[in-house]
Amino acid sequence: MKKILATKTLFILILFVPLVISFLVKIPFFQFSSGSADTWITFWGSYLGALIGAVTVYLVTTMQLREERKMQLDSIEKENQKAFDRDTQQYHFKIEIDKLEEFYQLIQEISDTVMKSSNVLTEYITYKQILNEEDISEEKKSIFQERRKILHKEVYDMLHILTSYTFKLRILPIYFNETYDLAHEMIGFLIDLAEELKKGVSNKRSYKNYSPDKPTLSHHMKDINKSVSKLNLIIENKLENKVLEMRESTQNMNYK
């Protein structure tokens, strides 16, 4: 609005000032100055021409500066938006990668815990079998009983850990649909293993129940390890692809 008003004012000055001056020099009131009317018209023409030129230069320069400032602000705004988009995208990538790494770490922990729980339960059953023998000395019996108490506690510690794993396995697959079925399957296997551990520390299982020809604990472990291998493969591939996707996205945004 200001720009339009300034342009109109300049146009009016250019159009009407010469006419006003030519009229004024003919009025008797202005006849006291020396020089002819033509001379004064030439003077005022030169003077006002220079003044109008200066005003024009000022207005043009001001408009150019405003345009340059607007372009700079637009450029800064675009760069800020670009940086914001890049940071937002990187943040989403980081969350996905962190969740994948967390998932992968969980699977490794499950595998290690399953193996450890199997060893602990096997050792517990072994000591329980030894303590049932009649020819064991009192000294050894005391030592074995103490060891069996420790193992009994370790088995229940494993049960708590396995319960926490089943909870995490219900949450993490929400981020990765392709792992949901396998994770749900593994939850079932872990529940079966937990039940086997409970039976192992009770009087419902004896040493003969864990012989090679009886697929009890070894059967659960085999199922779990199979699921672990499948999930590891999916997560490793997805993690590798996600890292490559993040790098390509970063390069593409830097080129824009």
How would you portray this structure in words?
With 256 residues, the protein is mainly α. The two termini are 35 Å apart. Helix 1 (2-24) runs antiparallel to helix 2. The protein has 5 helices and no strands. The model has no long low-confidence stretch (mean pLDDT 77). The chain folds into 2 domains: 2-81; 94-255, Four Helix Bundle (Hemerythrin (Met), subunit A), CATH 1.20.120.
**Percent of residues in helical segments?**
over 70%
Q: Main sheet?
A: none
Radius of gyration: 45 Å
Order of helices and strands: HHHHH
> What is the residue-mean pLDDT, rounded to a whole number?
77
Q: Return the CATH class of the largest domain.
A: Mainly Alpha
How many domains, as an integer? Answer: 2
User: In whole angstroms, how far apart are the ends?
Assistant: 35 Å
Query: How many helical stretches?
Result: 5
Low-confidence stretches: none
Strand content: under 5%
Outline type = rod-shaped
CATH topology-level name of the largest domain: Four Helix Bundle (Hemerythrin (Met), subunit A)
